[in-house]
Design goal:
single chain, 159 residues, alpha+beta, Ubiquitin-like (UB roll), DNA polymerase, domain 1, 2 domains, five-stranded mixed β-sheet, 30% helix
Length: 159
Amino acid sequence: MIKNISFQINGKPIKLAIDARRSLSDILRGNGYISVKEGCGVGECGACTVLVDGRPYNACITLAIWVDGCAVRTVEGESKDNRLSDVQQAYLEEGAVQCGFCTPGFVMTSTAFLESHRGTPVSRELIRREHAGNLCRCTGYDSIVNAVEKCMEHSLCKK
């Protein structure tokens, strides 16, 4: 069954006629948002994490029709004017990337975390717990936690 949906993707309106059974990750990747990686296909790894109305969602298990009328953000929309977002820059500086497959999902989870905890002191344990839905086989997680802390300590993510 074909459904017409409209939503914002990285601040830009989009209208699509889609099969109601298609996942958000399929629709996004099919429209050029290749940062949305499908690792597991069952919502376990977090590689496909995007923000829907500011909250992290696993795009592989989110039907595209569910974002009708919503604002969706992907890594492609985080950098502005050829400048990395503060979160992306902190990941780079802290070496929180290796193979890069999981990185977009982690960056979006970190972005949501930082936006929801603005001005609030948080522990390393809370950072780890809030990122538990994202799996990485390369980094060992400490560098990711360090990147989030760097954003918080240096007021990079308090805009």
